[in-house]
Structure formats: structure tokens, C-alpha cells
Amino acid sequence: MPAAASLAPTDAPPAISLKLLPAAIVVTSAIPLFGFEERLVGYPWLLVGLIVAYFVDRELMRDLGIIAAGLIVVSTVSVKADISWPNFFLLGFVLSLAVAVPFVLDRFVFRRKVIRFPWRGGQKWQPWEKSYLFAVPFLGWLILPFYFIQSGSYQNWPAVSEPSEVLRLFIGVNAVGIWDELFFICTVYVLLLRHFPVLTANILQAIVFVSFLWELGYQAWAPLMTIPFALLQGWIFHRTKSLTYVIIVHLLFDLVVFLAIVHAHNPGVFGFFLIESPGS
């Protein structure tokens, strides 16, 4: 049986149910936790969601508890772009822990195999999947430099010029991109999919995904991009059942993110973008 076979329950969950209330409370706790960095608001709101889930559905409470554990781990540090050596390793450790803790809870505490990382979807890539791999960097090239420069959001990332700094920025951008898929898709989305239809589970995970990206630096009008991106990543994963594919898509996008940030900070370095760097 393919590894992705457990992505959804056997019986299709109802479109509307009381379960939606505690799930919505838990995922929206990401808004104060990451969007506003208000832990004194986010943690109690998270707890309220788990308490409501206890009275609504115990299995849902377990899954939301696993998600909550990951959110709490991530919230212990700031995820704002900082490529100093101490923060580089600290953030790497915390984000790794945020994936490991839910996995351990699912596999060894609750003795299930809900959280999986299906590197192979068990089927050949369809023509649309191959075409999309070309569309992603093209759309990124078209949109991202305009977004970063016009909104000023490129300043949420450090200016880099030294080879060590450039390398750390490149590794950091791509490592966080891979982590996004491991946590938001393979953990949050998959757990929610046990209780909700695809569209509902996808919208719920996107709330957490976009809130995290906001703290990371995708601010101003970035949600016009990050919301569709988060929803597309969830939908594509559901269609392909392939973690490898969604990571490739994300890394192609993040390659352009990296180039656009370097371009915005360093006039004249890259001449292939449609918009000039500030100060050119």
C-alpha cells in the first residue's frame, strides 16, 4: 500500500460539523502567536480550542493537541529573518523540533501512523505537473521583485554581501521552505484532513501557514500571494500524494525569493529582473 494511503479517513467527513469550532480556534491562535507575536493572547486562545475539542470529539482533541505542540515549539523563538550564526543554528534546531515533536507524539505516544512523509507519490508526473514546474519560477520572476521592492518588504531580510552571508541566506530560505512542507502540509494539513473535507482542511492549514510567513517577513500585501500559495501547496499535495513534488515547487519559488532579495539589496547584481533595485 502506498505510504500516502492514510492521508484521509475512509469515510468522507461532513462539510459542516461542530468540530470546525475548536479547529478554527486552534489554527487562528497562529495569528496572535506569529502575526502579532502576542503569546499572552495566543496561548490562552490555543488552550480554549483544546478545551472545546475535549467536549466535542476526543480524537479531534488529540490531533489538535499535536498541532498545538508544534505551534508552541515554533513560538518559543522569533522566526524573523536573522542569519547571524547563533540564530542560524537556534532556528534550525527549533524548527526541526517542531516537526519531530508532533511525529513522536503521533507515532510513539498515540501509536498511529498518521503523520508520514511520502517522498514518492507512487505515480508518474502528469503533464500539468511538469508544466507547473516551469510556471512557478516564471511567475516568481514576474511578481516577487515587484512585491519586495514596491512594498519595501525586502528590508525584512538582512542585506548580504559577504560570501558567508549569501550562503547562509540561501540555505536559510530553502531550509525554511522545506520545513514549511513538512510542518504545514505533512503535519497540520494531514491531521486536519482526518476530520474535515479537503477544502476545509486546506483553508485551516493555510491560516497557520500564512501567519508564520507574515512573521518571517512576508508582510504588507504579501497575503495576496501567500494565501493562494499555501492553498495551492495543500491542494497539489492532495492530488499528487508526493512530498517530493511540493518541495520541488517550493524550492523553485524560494530560489526566486532569494535572488529577488539579493537583487533588492544590491543594485546592479542581477540584470534579469523587470524592476530595478532601490538606489539604482
From TrEMBL:
User: A Gene Ontology biological process annotation?
Assistant: proteolysis
What GO terms are given for molecular function? Answer: endopeptidase activity
The chain positions of domain CAAX prenyl protease 2/Lysostaphin resistance protein A-like read: 165-256
- Which keywords describe this protein according to UniProt? Hydrolase, Membrane, Protease, Transmembrane, Transmembrane helix
User: Taxonomically, which superkingdom?
Assistant: Bacteria
Q: Where are the transmembrane segments?
A: 12-34, 40-57, 89-110, 131-149, 169-191, 198-214, 220-237, 244-264
Q: Which InterPro entries match?
A: Rce1/LyrA-like_dom
Q: What Pfam family is a match, any one?
A: Rce1-like
Q: What is this protein called?
A: Membrane protease YdiL (CAAX protease family)
Protein species of origin: Microcella frigidaquae
